[in-house]
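BUG: 3D viewer hangs when loading the predicted structure for this chain

Environment: internal workstation, default settings.
Expected: structure renders.
Actual: progress bar stalls at 90%.

Input used:
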Amino acid sequence: MNSYKVLGHQLFSKGEYSIVPIRFEDRMDIMKWRNEQMYHLRQAEKLTEQSQDSYFKNVVSKLFEQEKPNQLLFSFLKMAFVLVMEVWYILTGLIRTLKFRL
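Structure tokens produced before the viewer hung:
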């Protein structure tokens, strides 16, 4: 599992849902989701497997090497039927942890 140096904990969970540092194996699902949401994400062109691999290799992988990365990317796991309150508690806990750690 990838880990951010700046975080003491790498896994944040509530029930069957968890947030972990972004996983390489999720990159194609992320690409598909982004390509389906191009208008809303203000994305100019469709991502390709090559561009997604390049982004993960040249941008995402380097985040895990930095003491204070400029962004933290996470994979949200087991998200089937998410209740708004469950997501709120998970994200609130994550934000509190990040503010405390940074």
